[in-house]
Design goal:
Length: about 325
């Protein structure tokens, strides 16, 4: 009974957010994001550190757009973003995430027939070509733009789609999120125990989406390069693709003004040498590199507050152990 009451309160709150006009909603989201940036020291420091070590060392991107401001990045590997530029980018990231709350309320009330007015699909020929192979399509996605609106965007393609997700521990929120994400026909598949269901859906010619830009524990992944640093990355996608020969297509959604644009990139060719361990590492690197390229194009719309490099690929022995070994 308690969970039912909380669920209804959350529904009312989301509906109220949906009645906030989009421009005032963006303004309020910006204010909320700046307050969050100021009071949340932990995530602010994670974000600034990620920006400094990732974008400051890049030698591949010559120009980055940050909310209308152009940043010239040199080919040197030294830090090239000034403190002001780093702070500006970090604040825009916090505003982007906070603004999602008001967009979710807007999306909650959005009718299916209204979707084409606010969503544009680019690169649809890439998923059409991959789907024509008849083995389903595995779409790798990332926390870009307002990723919660991906389901609405995908609904315009006409493909039967499912997306892997991590369940929420809080039952009322889990119920509301499922309702919102499945509103337009997309099926949500819990990560735990999803392997068999994924293969069945792919063999039936469906499109399955999975996030690939999050840190995982060392026993769940392999270390690949991400913005010049080792990042433990889920190896399950590469293992599945090697087994099923399913086509892999990167996709992401970004804001352009008050519209949302979903991009389907060209298929990533499968590398298969016969050495399973090597193939998993190479393909996981290729998928991760594709996501990195996307983030470099829209650095202010990615989820930099996540500690993507939390798991390290080394272990430092305690000083006491080192000393005891020397005796």
């Amino acid at each position: 009974m308690k969970n039912e009451i909380i669920y209804r309160i959350l529904k009312v709150f989301m509906t109220m957010l949906g009645f906030v006009p989009r421009r005032p909603g963006k303004f309020l989201g910006d204010i909320l994001g700046l307050i969050w940036f100021r009071v949340d020291r932990r995530h602010r420091e994670i974000t600034l550190e990620n920006i400094r070590l990732s974008l400051g060392r890049t030698s591949h991107v010559q120009d980055m757009a940050i909310q209308g401001k152009s940043l010239k990045v040199s080919s040197e590997k030294n830090l090239v973003l000034s403190d002001i530029d780093q702070q500006m980018l970090a604040k825009n990231i916090f505003k982007n995430i906070a603004g999602m709350l008001f967009e979710l309320g807007w999306g909650y009330l959005l009718k299916r027939e209204e979707i084409p007015r606010y969503f544009t699909i680019k690169g649809v020929e890439n998923i059409e070509k991959a789907h024509a192979r008849g083995k389903g399509v595995l779409v790798i996605i990332c926390h870009m733009g307002n990723w919660e609106l991906l389901a609405a965007a995908v609904a315009t393609t006409g493909y039967k789609t499912s997306i892997l997700y991590r369940k929420f521990d809080f039952a009322p929120l889990e119920r509301l999120i499922l309702e919102m994400r499945q509103k337009y026909g997309t099926v949500l598949i819990p990560l735990r125990g999803a392997s068999l269901q994924i293969e069945q859906r792919l063999s039936a010619g469906e499109v399955v989406g999975t996030l690939m830009d999050q840190n995982v524990d060392w026993y769940k992944g392999v270390f690949v390069e991400f913005f010049g640093r080792p990042a433990c990355t889920n190896s399950g996608v590469a293992s599945l693709v090697l087994r099923t020969r399913t086509a892999v297509v990167p996709a992401y959604i970004v804001r352009e003004g008050f519209k949302h644009v979903m991009h389907f990139e060209p298929e990533i060719p499968l590398v298969s040498t016969g050495d399973r361990i090597k193939d998993i590492e190479i393909n996981t690197q290729n998928y991760t590199s594709a996501i990195e390229s996307i983030i470099r194009c829209y650095p202010d719309q990615w989820f930099w507050v996540h500690n993507r490099w939390k798991v390290k690929n080394y272990s430092v022995l305690p000083q006491a152990s080192v000393l005891s070994q020397g005796k």
